[in-house]
Amino acid sequence: MGYLESAVVVYLREIYYPLGFAFPISPLSEKIALTEIFREVATLVMLVSIAFLAGRTTRQRFAWFIYAFGVWDIFYYVFLKLLVHWPESLLTWDILFLIPVMWTGPVAAPVIVSATMMLLALIILNTEGRAIRSSFFTYATLLIIAGSSVIFLSFIWDFSTFILERFPVSAFFDAVTMNAALVGYIPVKFNWWLFTAGELFLVAGSAVLYAGYFKDRRT
Length: 219
Fold this sequence. Notes:
Number of helices: 7
Oligomer: single chain
Strand content: under 5%
Structural class: mainly alpha
Helix content: over 70%
Order of helices and strands: HHHEEHHHH
Number of strands: 2
Distance between the termini: 43 Å
Largest sheet: 2 strands, antiparallel
Strand order of the largest sheet: 1-2
Radius of gyration: 19 Å
Shape: globular
């Protein structure tokens, strides 16, 4: 899946960025833009399918989903580096996702998140079926949800700021205006403070989950 994703990106860059990928992005036709969005949806469907095949319970399926997501995302960049020698560094900006709005950030950010997701998945799988205090599970869940939300905000922060400084809020729901904004957008600054806070929440949630398992094992 990682190679397939990188291969599609190589084709797109060969067509739209023959001199190398750089912001601002090239205008996309409505057909290509919709195809890209549904390609991302299809990728999520494949990852969910892996989770349902690998797991028997809801927790196992969630764990396998985030584990597969992490492996896929990391190897997407590995294969891009092998195929087109990109990114130049881990601080190179990339378009990460398009749903519900464009996510952007340095390559290092999604790689860190992917590694964290894989670690969390392994903890969940290791504790599945074993006694965990309900309070530990509740706190861990809240921390993980909070961390995921803050990281999501960090990825859309720069682009959303760009939109809100130039267009009304309704631009987020106007495809024509949004497309015009996309071709004028150049990333300025990634919100590392937000991202780090989100990562700390995720790590804390993972630690609480792991601690809950060992707490019950001792008792």
